[in-house]
Amino acid sequence: MTIPFIGPEADGKLDWLALTRAIAAGHDLPCAEIGDTFLYRDPDTMLSRSAWIDGLGVLVKTATIFPGNVPEKPAVGGAVSVFSDTDGSLSAMLDFRLVTKWKTAGDSLLGATRLARPDSRDILIVGSGTVAKSLHEAYSAAFPDARFTVWSRNGENAAALAHEIGGTAAPDLGDAVSTADIVTVATMTTDPIIRGEWLRPGQHLDLIGAYRPDMREADDDALRRATIFVDARATTLDHIGELKIPLAEGVIARSDIVADYYDGDAMRRSSDDEITLFKNGGGAHLDLMVARYILDVAG
Q1: N or C: which end of the chain has fewer CB within 10 A?
Q2: What is the value of pTM for the model shown?
Q3: Average pLDDT over the chain, rounded to an integer
Q4: Which of the listed CATH numbers 3.30.1780.10, 2.60.120.260, 1.10.10.60, 1.10.10.10 matches domain 5-100+285-298?
């Protein structure tokens, strides 16, 4: 028996808005069983995530993050395996970067379609790497009239990405945040770079980059000022520094996390003036939902 492999060539067959519908539908199924394993050898990380959703099957995704590889080699590698929900057999192997691209940006896009103001027009991308490019693709699908601005610690990279996507490079992060309707942040920082004092009523803040217990992108003031949402409580509150640290320090309480995707209609803004903050934790259950969507379309 030949096991199907879905490679990067499937990218052109996929659709961002259809993907958000698939992720939403996945949360109508029984809550996922999730298991995460982190192994560290500073500054390197091995992250293995698994999920089982009754009705979708089982997925195991292993990622290796070696920051020192750049620029000679890719910093991130890995593999994705999907298993049958019926008999546990291996159903398919998928390209790691394909699944990661569509899961990461699709997760944030679904959050933005529920939490950002529909009239949002100015979108700031903080970061200039691979994820930043896919965020532009994703957000353009739901906000086709948006104007994009890019800020990065590396000004040359910010200018290059801005030119590539037809946007503008921002010289000052604070000014760029204060004038944006949506701020989407995809960096590798461990110390917060987004300050709450820069936020204004009606904004949506999308935090993606932090994935380890020692990583944060937004400061305490941002968390205090915003209404907080996550993709899944189980994969964020006790695992990622963005929320784990301020929870431990009493800056916020667990009750301040208003909703995750399993809470359905509770995942929405309550007023035009509300500042919404979404933490994209990207658990393996989302990889499974996205992998099944890819298999349905391109398998």
Answers
A1: N
A2: 0.94
A3: 96
A4: 3.30.1780.10
